[in-house]
């Protein structure tokens, strides 16, 4: 019998559970339900008030329908109410359907636990301020787009609105605190109080009392099932038959990349590695280290398949491809300074994690940063330069990525976190030129000679989004002495605190 939270969820420890097998039943499995063998624990990840049944059970509302043949996943429709029985896993709830005695895993991103938000399109729950700005800044959201989210203060909410300055045409995100009354009810201005959040939103959708009238809810990225089920995520090696290959996504430094499914449920990117030089035992050891890395700004590695060559790595799928390509698309070209700054902040966040854990990337560039829905970006190909023999650590064309590598990296072969900082500066150049090529018009030989012999640095790009403060950060990353380059912690805080999207404090209603 499958053992649920929290006893069997011991990542990288103890005996491995056999992978879950799906039955080809043509619909949801109706096998007998597994039982919870451990006492449930109090829910801890929602700030708002829960809908509770008479026996104090926590009730969640489904924001989306979920239909799958995986017998361990609970199927439901949008608006269905589910009883949350355990939330100890970071990505999944154990839940039971309120009206039917069906139980299973449910992705947390599919549910809303706040009874005031319900299933409203504009309610974004535990989305923080930075993520609210990232979402609203997406080009698909017009001025007047808005969302309601939990505020940092327990039990309170915030209204975030996309605005545009009529004098400068600058895009801004405005934030308003929604306060609650002791007797129940909500208000932004004490003069106007409302029984529900819905009433508040409807009022400001028809009244010019904020920076602008609320027009339409922020577009919500449809959540995919990104993480393996708790009963299969610890699987180190998976059978080739568990992988389905649907579409070629491209070729990288280490082999070909495909879009596919793992266990018929999880959307994944499958890398089929170049075969020569890969040592199986070393490969498995390195992947074990990479698999243990779990950070929201680093692409997840799920599993490997080494039962046949070429070896496969199963990784998280990012729907919008690599950043270098995305910046050149119609949507990418529409990204302005605030959105570009948010991209840089996310990259620095992932690199700060590597820096804090004494790890290096070795191939940081826009082509190795992947873009998901809603403007999310994550570091990719981290560690593959160690998994594959150094002899085949090459860029397309058979040479080291001279245009991105720090001078000490290609003169001495030494890679450090400070050489990653140099590469980050080059990535900034790509980002703030919307995919421009570094050292355009020069050969690799000319680049290496100019950078190492003449201390040449690229001039400030002409793109209007590359303001002086951003170019100054680039040049700091390109200091000749690695010790003089900034840390990723500094870079993260620089871009996170960059004052381009909103005021430091909440606004008041007029």
TrEMBL record:
Q: What GO biological process terms are annotated to this protein in UniProt?
A: actin cytoskeleton organization; cell development; morphogenesis of an epithelium; salivary gland morphogenesis
Compositionally biased region (Polar residues): 42-51
Concerning its family, UniProt says: Belongs to the protein kinase superfamily. Tyr protein kinase family.
- Keyword ATP-binding in annotation: yes
Provide the residue span(s) of the region labelled Disordered: 1-51
Q: Which reaction does it catalyse?
A: L-tyrosyl-[protein] + ATP = O-phospho-L-tyrosyl-[protein] + ADP + H(+)
Give one GO term, molecular function aspect: ATP binding
Binding residues for ATP:
271
Q: Return the EC number.
A: 2.7.10.2
Q: Where is the composition biased (Basic and acidic residues)?
A: 19-40
Give one Pfam hit by family name.
SH2
Q: What is this protein called?
A: Tyrosine-protein kinase
Which parts of the sequence belong to the Protein kinase domain?
243-495
Query: In what residue span(s) does the SH2 domain sit?
Result: 122-218
The SH3 domain extends over: 55-116
The protein's matches in InterPro entries, at most eight in alphabetical order, are given as: Kinase-like_dom_sf (IPR011009), Non-receptor_tyrosine_kinases (IPR050198), Prot_kinase_dom (IPR000719), Protein_kinase_ATP_BS (IPR017441), Ser-Thr/Tyr_kinase_cat_dom (IPR001245), SH2 (IPR000980), SH2_dom_sf (IPR036860), SH3-like_dom_sf (IPR036028)
Q: Which Gene3D superfamilies match?
A: SH2 domain, SH3 Domains, Transferase(Phosphotransferase) domain 1
Q: Which UniProt keywords apply?
A: ATP-binding, Kinase, Nucleotide-binding, SH2 domain, SH3 domain, Transferase, Tyrosine-protein kinase
Q: Does the keyword Transmembrane apply?
A: no
